[in-house]
Amino acid sequence: MSTLISGLIFIAVVVICSNRKYLMKLFKKKKYQSIDGMKWSNFERAVLLHVNRYRESRDLDDLKPDDKFYVEAHKRAEIQAEHGKLSHDRMDITTENLIPFGIKFTGENLAKGWVTSERLVQEWIASLKHHKNIVNPRWKYTGIAKVLDENGKTWYCQTFGY
Questions:
Q1: How far is residue 104 CA from its own chain's centroid?
Q2: Which residues pair with 65 in a beta bridge?
Q3: Long-range CB contacts (within 8 A, 24+) of 152-156
Q4: In what order do the strands lie in the sheet with 64-65?
């Protein structure tokens, strides 16, 4: 009986390890820098999904979520919320923060107040300058942030780079 149990445990371990290797292979194949490391919210993940679906419809590669861009997006959204206005002032700081990681150029889309991820992306697509960022074929990595200010107003930032 103990041999049978040992055999079943061995089989279970082999199956779990095999599945883990398969999942890791898929994860590496996607070349995501990490989407769980920074605990992207469901909303932020949904924005990424909508943006990438739109890019795919234009025969563009998906943007890869990256924790460094996630952190920069959150910093930028928090600055907007703190000052109570949308502004691309000092975007160069994002680029400077990412240069040590081999990033050459960055861009960002900002917004406030939209209630759904789909509506947010639709509004960015409808805006010429925001649309240019979404369909820029050079962009490889992205980070997305949704933050609330002290009054409960929502602020968004999507950073892009390569």
A1: 18
A2: 142
A3: 153/81, 153/112, 153/113, 154/112, 154/113, 154/114, 154/115, 155/77, 155/78, 155/80, 155/81, 155/110, 155/111, 155/112, 156/47, 156/77, 156/109, 156/110, 156/111, 156/112, 156/114, 156/120
A4: 64-65, 141-148, 154-161, 106-112
| Calpha distance 72→49 (Å, rounded) | 19
The 10s digit of each residue's pLDDT in 27-67 is: 343 333 455 566 889 999 999 999 999 999 999 999 999 99
For the chain, helix (H) and strand (E) counts, in that order, are 6, 4
CB 68 within 8 Å of CB 98: yes
Residue reference for tokens 């000092």: 90
Q: What contacts 134, CB < 8 A, 6 or more positions away? A: 51, 54, 55, 109, 121, 124, 125
pTM of the full predicted structure? Answer: 0.76
